[in-house]
Amino acid sequence: MNGTGSENLLQRTFQRVLGQWRDITSGAPDDAPLAPGLPDRDADRVRRQMRACLEGHGGEVSARARAAALGRAYMSLTAEGRARFLRILATEFDTDRQAVAAAAIGLDELDDWGGRKRRERQLRAALEPPRLRLLTQFNALPDGVKFLVDMRATLLALASEDEAFADLEADLKSLLANWFDVGFLELRQITWDTPAAIIEKLIEYEAVHEISDWDEMKSRLGVDRRCYAYFHPRMPDEPLIFVEVALTAGIADDVQALLSPREEAEAAADTAIFYSISNCQRGLDGIGFGGFLIKRVVDQLSAEIRRIDTFATLSPIPGFRKWLDGYLAEAPGELMTRGERRALAAFCGADDDAECLAVLIERPGWHRDDALAKTLAAPLARLCAHYLAREKRDTGRALDPVAHFHLSNGARMERLNWLADTSPRGIARSCGLMMNYLYEVDDIAGNHESYTGAGEIPASSRFRALLR
Amino acid sequence: MNGTGSENLLQRTFQRVLGQWRDITSGAPDDAPLAPGLPDRDADRVRRQMRACLEGHGGEVSARARAAALGRAYMSLTAEGRARFLRILATEFDTDRQAVAAAAIGLDELDDWGGRKRRERQLRAALEPPRLRLLTQFNALPDGVKFLVDMRATLLALASEDEAFADLEADLKSLLANWFDVGFLELRQITWDTPAAIIEKLIEYEAVHEISDWDEMKSRLGVDRRCYAYFHPRMPDEPLIFVEVALTAGIADDVQALLSPREEAEAAADTAIFYSISNCQRGLDGIGFGGFLIKRVVDQLSAEIRRIDTFATLSPIPGFRKWLDGYLAEAPGELMTRGERRALAAFCGADDDAECLAVLIERPGWHRDDALAKTLAAPLARLCAHYLAREKRDTGRALDPVAHFHLSNGARMERLNWLADTSPRGIARSCGLMMNYLYEVDDIAGNHESYTGAGEIPASSRFRALLR
Amino acid sequence: MNGTGSENLLQRTFQRVLGQWRDITSGAPDDAPLAPGLPDRDADRVRRQMRACLEGHGGEVSARARAAALGRAYMSLTAEGRARFLRILATEFDTDRQAVAAAAIGLDELDDWGGRKRRERQLRAALEPPRLRLLTQFNALPDGVKFLVDMRATLLALASEDEAFADLEADLKSLLANWFDVGFLELRQITWDTPAAIIEKLIEYEAVHEISDWDEMKSRLGVDRRCYAYFHPRMPDEPLIFVEVALTAGIADDVQALLSPREEAEAAADTAIFYSISNCQRGLDGIGFGGFLIKRVVDQLSAEIRRIDTFATLSPIPGFRKWLDGYLAEAPGELMTRGERRALAAFCGADDDAECLAVLIERPGWHRDDALAKTLAAPLARLCAHYLAREKRDTGRALDPVAHFHLSNGARMERLNWLADTSPRGIARSCGLMMNYLYEVDDIAGNHESYTGAGEIPASSRFRALLR
Amino acid sequence: MNGTGSENLLQRTFQRVLGQWRDITSGAPDDAPLAPGLPDRDADRVRRQMRACLEGHGGEVSARARAAALGRAYMSLTAEGRARFLRILATEFDTDRQAVAAAAIGLDELDDWGGRKRRERQLRAALEPPRLRLLTQFNALPDGVKFLVDMRATLLALASEDEAFADLEADLKSLLANWFDVGFLELRQITWDTPAAIIEKLIEYEAVHEISDWDEMKSRLGVDRRCYAYFHPRMPDEPLIFVEVALTAGIADDVQALLSPREEAEAAADTAIFYSISNCQRGLDGIGFGGFLIKRVVDQLSAEIRRIDTFATLSPIPGFRKWLDGYLAEAPGELMTRGERRALAAFCGADDDAECLAVLIERPGWHRDDALAKTLAAPLARLCAHYLAREKRDTGRALDPVAHFHLSNGARMERLNWLADTSPRGIARSCGLMMNYLYEVDDIAGNHESYTGAGEIPASSRFRALLR
Prior knowledge:
homotetramer, disordered N terminus, 3 domains, five-stranded mixed sheet, 21 helices
């Protein structure tokens, strides 16, 4: 995601920084470059540098210059070398066990308020690992924030395989969560007048409906279309998350129609359809601003275009087909009405409804066979509604990740749309079905409560009818 | 410092925010405004709101809207009401004693690494007081950062009289230290083309050499003068700290000459004199960026004007006269040479040197009496040098705060200047003496080490001669 | 108006230009500076340079570099030297009499359309004086436009005394009229966030109600006040004309009240009062954009603040007192009713109404004597209404210049206000009277027609009552 | 060139304008839209509107609103309708023959200076056709300047077939020449951070070496490449002309190598190669700023990158092949040396050198046949050098338009490059040959003089050797 381009940029800017700081760092880092794989001899040099940064010799300004040198060194390493670098940070600059124990002992017996508070502060200080300070020092550099975001992306990958990295990853996450507080983010509208370098990134980062070329991107920024992204002031050229919106007459039910080029504005547009939301920075996983983004855009559009009074999504159902395969394999009981069953028999030799369904949705191009598609519509919709509204994780959240995202933002389930995404991916992942989630401004807080509290899933009567 | 103007702005912007969020907050805050003194009945409403924000009913977006309502309520209170508001926050939303104790018990006996790490994380979480989250929620508001900076200014005043506020103040400081990391700050040159609203603030905030009117300010931004300030991206109209610089031929020794208007650029300018550094936000006390500011400006000026190769200050010695009075009162022994003593006798009836000095520097206008001034020059300079270089606090840092600031930034003591500031304030605080601290780029890190480590004070041979 | 500051700037920028072009101009201008008074010997050098620019040796780029050198030379001259420089331009680079005559002869006898058109083009070319091309060449310089505007200010002064400069002035006017077409101008709102350098100029240029200091200026940009100025893209730091507006409840009738500081916004504001319009550039005299400015501001305010639906001025009547003195001296007949006459007799020994009036309005502080002021109100208002609506120049336009400006913009006479400007200047120039001109959007075109066509003066019935 | 996109924009903006002005124009234009072909009945309405604009009923502001309505009407017409509209303007709003004659008669007999000047001014006024004022009025509109530039593009096409449009086209050209004076133009560097909308236009407008897609464009803005364009402040989204530059080690001789993507910066780059210059606005034909653009870019690059000290082009020779065909057809005498002739005989049956050449360069892919290409190199180079340096128009200017452009800008002929452009177009138009023109800063003015004065063509000795 954050490819060579940005790394080259980082290297360039570090060099500039080093130029700037050059006269300030006495005892500058050895000039000999590190070997890219960070063999033991070089690992020692890195270790010493880290220690020097933390001890702050020569003052905080010098420490930051040293951190720059370290950062440059890190950028020059191979993936293996970087893993070694991070392992040193993760294991050798952790909290001091003795100090923590000393501060913790007897804390519960302290009775005077002032004394207890002082001890709590001591303990909190002891629990803060030194490496956190080093991570912070990188921020004095140009692109230091991007550097840390990319470092966390690397750590997330490493931590998934080796627990030793988990704590360092968590430290970095807490630091970034602080810095990427939504109050610091800047909402920008993306238009065809946005710098090409940023539009290029959106094309690359789009995760829902792939953008094939610049013409398609232009069309997504054209008549009756809107695009908004969050940016951080210290990463002004890097979108964090973006949403694509279509202004339509009524709630849209067909994403291919939405994506095709238009010539003229829709006179009767009264609805904003959020048809794609993509996160851009893997290193910010788990630091959520999607909910804020949607609401900021709702506010902005309401204020700007008075006639728009409905806000809904046209969303993929990424987990449906996978769930369906498992479900059908377990040969469930009653799936459909007698009439539906008869209709199905015309297409399928199998006795069993479930088997029959499983066979038919494997048939290539089934959705272009009108009669077959018509026959499949009702049973698939009913199964999908069940999947969306009834299937949950242990924690009580909806199994489908997109459903969970919108429900926890306070949306409700509005309408399930048949053959709404007939792209190969749409057919493969959700049998062509798509969902409209509705953001009804007055109900958002209540919906959120119902969902996160009681675990109830707000839905339109139309959708609920599918569940009976 | 942060007067009515900015409060009005805050109130305006909160109203705007509430407007924006209005449809999102269901169960919006009661509309009846709080009584300004926050009597008990209203304190209960505030308490409930705080709890609601922390419990996050209706989702994080709603919580932030509630925080906005709380913030608006706070702004409408009197000083007394605000103190009550903050006391609730300080005492009722602190860490949970039981939870802390539970997490701490037995920590030192945990032997497996993974288990200990998990417990440390638990403990860290327990030590984080809930109010910290509430403080963070204010950041989603326009001017939320300024709101918190001003709140800390209020807390600093309260905490100096009542320990109950100290922990809340410390929480807020840690939050702000994180957000005001120097890497986030933006250096801007201030010129006559800077918005009037910002220039007005500099006039107000100038703490070293008062600016009497706009003409004087214009002259300080004119020929051979520079001014730089740090800003935070979320407080773009509020300078945090600024420095005023004069480009001179050689190291300047007279601040009145420096402040008088000039017509033409100095052809032979080879030196940048930092003659005034002022902090603007009381709420950021103790979060130091002065050292970074000086070095950034040194970098910038070096790059921009090749012929400038000397960087020094012309600094006040704010504590000299106060120290001197105490020193003289203790009737010290040898103060001066026989020649000096004889010269002094011509002006003073007293037998005792110290008494004599004490009397003479009380004489109004002594510095305009050439013969007297000449007689006082040597003894006062010697005493002042002693004060600057020898008088220290228990911690080992220099007693004079300006000296401590520059020494810990890596400067050295360069030259003491006689009758360098003959303004009433200059005479009253330092008998007209001023110091040049020199920033020699190659020595900065070493000087810093000498001072912060061994407690040695780097000085020019000329200055050292005064100490013999 | 365009003082030393801008000239210094010009000299600086010319030097920069010359630096830029230095390598391009072969045969660069002699380095020896011209003598400031431009004696004959140096005048010859100037003449040669002008010729070289016009002949375009070395190409158009070189010609422009030469024009820069000439411009720099001009800036270095004294007023006398500049007059000589301009005289050379005015008299030696005029149209070629022979060429004009040759092209004109027989033109009326040409019968074929094509031939006549060709001849017309020849004639037009012959009528274009060479110096016009030289004036244009200055535009390639930074601040070239400002240079020409200032040059025209100088020419206007010279031309008023010596007809020889009139044609050059007219050439320059036509060039500037072309470049300052209103379509090129940029409307900017001036606020307290506008650069200090521009606000300083507004303080200086304000021609109607003097601004005494920065605090007063801040108040004029504060609550319920607006200020707009036109700028040219090539003079971005120089306002061309600006208007000050107050948002009031109803049409204001007292300018002192308008100018005094306010604390809070007026909840019932429904009217925009244009209380000051000032031209800033003498060199643009006669190139009118005042009418456009008013209408642009009306548009902008209408769009921005829905509740504002009345647009009027509170204007000085600069010529009233001067006219009144003449009028009274000619001892006119009936001036007032018997009742008024009796009331007046209480204050004045004179027999004659006119004489009595003339005496009384000379009495210092008459407007603070309530009884006297009340007595004078009706007769002065009647005379002033007569002056405004009946006294005209030969051309039919209103004698009062402010009245003429607003009437030709399509406003109507709305209301005459007694003791509306009691500043010394207001009393001296218009006996404290001020006018409201009303811009009724639907009537603007019609009012303009009535005034510029039939010479009729649109007025409210209230105002017309004064004329009976 | 200026397609539907911009027309739609114009229509939108006119509507906005009409909205803005709506309240000001009383007696607004009929609401019924014109028929697109402008039949006689509608032509009458247009005629009346034009007259109303010129007579200025309702004031200048109203006139401009009317001009906006007229402009909108024009935009709604078909090509045929527009031609009718323009014909009305061209033939019915021309100068008044009688007035011109009256002012011209007896002019040559006027002896007093003042009288003659007055008469000249009268005559000049009479020679200014009324339609010029109408054209100017369009400038008060958003995009009015672009409107006029596009109108001139239309007029140039019409005038090439019907002389009746020529004068209107010339009027418009003089107006635009005034407004597009180079002093008003803004040089912008185009980078990958430039808005996509502008980069898209460059891709479209590139006239020399076609840009196939966005990747190629990105590469032309990448490492060691530069791009600069001129813009007008009133057409900020429309490039007027742009130049593409490559930074190379030595003078480049192969445009395909230049256009292929690069990974890394060239360490030894000392030369800036201007390899493509494209005009973007047909409506500005004949208003030259190419020479200024080159010199501004030379200045900018010299200042920015010290090591660059050579400035040259790698230019097409668009007219060579066409000229060559004619030349060879006339069977010229001696073309080549005996050795060359013999070498050629190996490939060609023809007796005649010229015929032989003519045949061989028709052979598809001849340039990929090494032996053949080697044989053709010397004779073709010699012929091309002759074409470039010896073939001239009657006016004395070089026959090849690119050669003329650079020579009149002061460049010299530096080097002819064999097989420097092997694209189909390069082979077809210039047998693969390309020229380097060298801009030697010190010689530019002298070269210009030699070329435009004596008609001499400056050339390197190497190039001159080809001419012997």
